[in-house]
Amino acid sequence: MVSSLLALPSTFSRLNLVQKSSIFIPFTFKALSLLKFHKQPRLRPFNYRLLHFPSSLNSPEAHFSTSRRPVSSKSFDVDLVVLGIETSCDDTAAAIVRGNGEILSQVVSSQADLLARYGGVAPKMAEEAHSQVIDQVVQDALDKASLTERELSAVAVTIGPGLSLCLRVGVQKARRVAGSFNLPIISVHHMEAHALVARLIEKELQFPFLALLISGGHNLLVLAHDLGHYTQLGTTIDDAIGEAFDKTAKWLGLDMRKSGGPAVEQLAQEGDAESVRFSIPMKQHKDCNFSYAGLKTQVKLAIASRNIDAKVPLSCASSLDRSSRADIAASFQRVAVLHLEERCERAVEWALKIEPSIKHLVVSGGVASNQYVRARLDQVVQKYSLQLVCPPPNLCTDNGVMIAWTGIENFRVGRYDPPPPANDPDDFMYDLRPRWPLGEEYAEGRSEARSLRRARVHPSLTSLVQASLQQQ
Ligand code: KG4
Ligand code: ZN
């Protein structure tokens, strides 16, 4: 069985050696679609080799389901055990999750010290930091789950979007594990994972739903029609909200060791949110896009005009200085979130027109761990009788659970690659997608303020999945 598997053409793997040309992409996804899921419920213990190659490759139709219906047998879910690996930005994370959503382990090694020192992510240093800890992080995840690699069913790994140097570390590790232990591998979209982890937490959460994904690098409003099928209602034209929180924290001289957002949130509790008059971004643009660069500049100017010295740590500031910093933190947070609220209201209205059955707004990504953000957005959804779903804070910030869970969701519908070879050649080119839109843009929501060039150049996850489905 293994030999027939290894004899498969290299195009079978999305993570395999691929030419840089985007022409190649449909082939890799086409290849994916050939790997249909075999769903005989009597399979126990879980063994992908039985699933993929039950007896022969001669008549695939006899063995592989063409249905995209999720496999939902209880024993299947319990037997499925997936390792998730995440290294797209500054956290090295791994987790092991069962098909039924049980989290067996979760490990995150953060680069907070580097972040505090440089005030942002430096790709080369982040890559080194990932490389130093990746083996240990994965080993810890296995140890905490009391499992060995042999007991895994598959490995899921983020292939984008993110920093390619960093993504590469995770993908290399995933391929080493999958190759050595003959495990299928699942390529994961980082932002899809932020959205889908909400389905692990809230079992009632069905497609379609609306999602606001807010992190250090992304500000996305997406309508999730189905797994792998998203419409982008809005995105940022410049900076994401997390970046604005981080810079505000840095300029206010706050402790960045837990990233800037939590520090601003904490200080904001002491401040008067009405005291500094920042203007809400993009009021004149009646769309769902975001902009935080202007607000950042307003904060910088306010800090300069109050003679706040970021080199003086908050703990050493006079009480007047401290309250002045707190006022800026609170005022910034209020306006940053007002911008989210305004965009979300419009997005709910658009989403209800496109998919009238939506019942939930998912808010996820690092900034969704902010309690003020959650409270304000809860009020927005109540107006429309929708329900807000926010994963717990440790599943909002980057983590391995969301990658493992997204791997599980994709694995169930047959979207995975067979095991890679045990060793990749030195000149191996990985299928990394540093810029990778989640879905196509909603035509009515296009903003003149937003440059669409970047989004068009890179095929979205949705377009790749749709192309693959059409070829089935
Ligand atoms: O999703 P995430 O962990 O990584 C990215 O994919 O970017 O998000 C990190 C971002 C950082 O900008 C961090 O400052 C922000 O999430 N963040 C917060 C809070 N916790 C994390 N922002 C505001 N309030 C928080 N409590
Ligand atoms: Zn993230």
Number of strands: 11
Largest sheet: 6 strands, mixed
- What ligand species are in this complex? 5'-O-[(R)-(carboxyoxy)(hydroxy)phosphoryl]adenosine, zinc ion
What pattern of helices and strands is seen along the backbone?
HHHHHEEEHHEHEHEEEHHHHEHEHHEHH
Mean pLDDT across all residues, rounded? 84
- Shape estimate: globular
Q: Residue ranges: pLDDT <50 for 5 or more in a row?
A: 1-69
Give the distance, in angstroms, between the N- and C-terminal Cα atoms.
24 Å
Strand share of the residues?
5-15%
CATH architecture group name of the largest domain:
2-Layer Sandwich
Structural class of the secondary structure composition?
Answer: alpha/beta
Tally of discrete structural domains: 2
Organism: Gossypium hirsutum (Upland cotton)
Subcellular location: Mitochondrion
InterPro entries: ATPase_NBD (IPR043129), Gcp-like_dom (IPR000905), KAE1/TsaD (IPR017861), TsaD (IPR022450)
GO biological process, one term: tRNA threonylcarbamoyladenosine modification
Tell me briefly what this model is.
The chain is of the alpha/beta class.
How would you describe the overall organization of this protein?
It is found in: Mitochondrion. Homodimer. Keywords: Acyltransferase, Metal-binding, Mitochondrion, Transferase, tRNA processing. It catalyses: L-threonylcarbamoyladenylate + adenosine(37) in tRNA = N(6)-L-threonylcarbamoyladenosine(37) in tRNA + AMP + H(+). This is Glycoprotease 1. The protein is of the alpha/beta class and 472 residues long. It has 2 domains: 2-202 and 398-470, ATPase, nucleotide binding domain (Nucleotidyltransferase, domain 5); 209-396, ATPase, nucleotide binding domain (Nucleotidyltransferase, domain 5, 2-Layer Sandwich). The chain is 43% helix and 14% strand. It is built from 18 helices and 11 strands. The chain has helices at 2-6, 25-34, 48-52, 60-63, 74-79, 112-118, 123-144, 164-180, 190-201, 241-251, 260-268, 293-305, 319-354, 371-383, 393-396, 400-412, 453-457, 461-470, and strands at 81-86, 91-98, 103-110, 154-160, 185-189, 209-214, 219-226, 229-234, 360-364, 387-389, 440-441. Strands 10-9-6-7-8-11 form a 6-stranded mixed beta sheet, sandwiched between helices. Strands 3-2-1-4-5 form a 5-stranded mixed beta sheet, with helices on both faces. A hairpin with a 4-residue loop joins β6 and β7. α7 packs parallel to α8 (164-180) and α10 (241-251) runs antiparallel to α13 (319-354). The longest helix is centred in the last third of the chain and has 36 residues, at 319-354. It is globular. The structure holds 5'-O-[(R)-(carboxyoxy)(hydroxy)phosphoryl]adenosine and zinc ion. The site of 5'-O-[(R)-(carboxyoxy)(hydroxy)phosphoryl]adenosine (KG4) has 19 residues, from α10 and α11.
